[in-house]
User: Fold these one by one.
Assistant:
Number 1:
Amino acid sequence: MVAVLLAEDDADIRDLVTFTLREAGYEVRAFEDGLSALASARDNRPDLAVLDIMMPGMSGLDACRELRADPATSEVPIILLTARAQEPDIETGFAVGADDYIVKPFSPRELASRVHAVLARIQT
């Protein structure tokens, strides 16, 4: 089963994403902050990470940078899921290594489709 790492500080959104991705057939390991998610990724490499940008302790951008800098996790596909929708925010997300960028509010079906698409791209 494909393992998805989720870092999202909002419990309602975390629950929605977890439910959506589990219904789509993914195993989800959910965390409320970037530090915990990063530690989990280092201990048990996920197949894909979904990171909120604005979280306490360590932002999703910093977690993305750390995942890319570590040879053990540098190839993990990363989707940023965030309320930051301005063009400079999106550019920064891709500049730190994100494979996709989804703006909140989002469609759960679109999220599942984009997770599937990112995973399909890396398998080819």
Number 2:
Amino acid sequence: SDIIAGVTGRVLAIECKSGKDKRYITKKQIEELEEFSRRFGAESWVGVRFDREWWYFLSLDDLDESSTGNNFVVDIDLAKKKGLSFEELIKN
């Protein structure tokens, strides 16, 4: 994972992706994030940022599989619909 943060008694492990279009995350990256989180008692999250947008944080359950099934994909619509802002993430 790219970021490990402790927030009010919680530990967050966040895989971060940024760019201007869809963000792809390999299944291997998600498996490694889940394994790391399990070992350290952390919550698994994916953070995505698109050009001229804020960061959005999504639970692994909110990720969509790509059409090939080899990756997960997040676009701006999914991020805005299901993602949390940083403030919302640390409040939960």
Number 3:
Amino acid sequence: KATPRPKATTTAQAKAHMGRVAELGCRACARLGYGIVPAEVHHVRCFAGAGQRSSDFHTIGLCPMHHRLGGSGVAIHAGIRSFERTYGTERELLDQTLRMLGFDVAPEDLARPDLGALLYPKE
């Protein structure tokens, strides 16, 4: 019998982290020079398998237009390749977001499924 897969739960630390990410504003609007535009959280897909979502620590802030409402070339969910040509890759935007939050994560550590434990080690 297969071992059941553990359910993903959102911890208080993950919720707090996503709140901090959203407070930074939209990364795409910032690249366009629009300053801080209110954002919602986007889970980057570059570190997840097909049909899966990355951890709550693999998130970037995007305004509704750049996240889900804009068309191809504007919204990340309308076309990842055209979005990345204009605003940068998810990996680049994640790295930028983490640096803005005060974390210096090595490039090879960005893909870690336990990124949250690396960012917020238990003391």
Number 4:
Amino acid sequence: MTSKRINAVEKLDLELLTSQLEELIALCERLQDENDRLRARQSQMEAQQARLLESNEFSRNKIETMISRLKVMEAEL
């Protein structure tokens, strides 16, 4: 091969490598964005779960109180 031909091959290889690197960087950025969105969604869901557990506990306590009152009323009859 001549020197010009070797340089042309090297240039094509470098251009291909540069293109692949740019694609990889774009993929990493997309994955980072997706990861950020998923982490935010997870945080929202964890907060929602905590609120639901708190509401469930409140309702359970309220029902237990009502049952206790009904038992007292029944015993008074």
